[in-house]
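Here comes an entry:

___
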Amino acid sequence: MSVAPKRARPEVTEAVERAAELALELKATNVVALDLASLWGATDYFLLVSGRSDVQVKAIAENIVDQLKKKEIRPEHIEGLQGGRWVLIDYIDFVVHVFHEEARQFYQLEVLWGDAPRLDFDG
């Protein structure tokens, strides 16, 4: 008996899309969601976004957290907000990674999760 691949729930996909919009509102670049639902059981999506400065990275992360809270979507955990190089916002069903451009190039999560289907939000 074959098992159908796991798919993200529509409300999770909607939350990821909203987070991407919120990042783009503050001029984030290279906004990409990696659909990990069928590859990894820990989370359904990684949303990867870049900022050009530590201040912008922090502002993007804070905007996502503040605006999603208004929709009753609250993070389980946030790391790196003080530093501004890489902010990780863990919503359990999806994880937002807000990177300074240089940190994103260094960690290359897109390469690490290269098998994951991609959703590009900024063209």
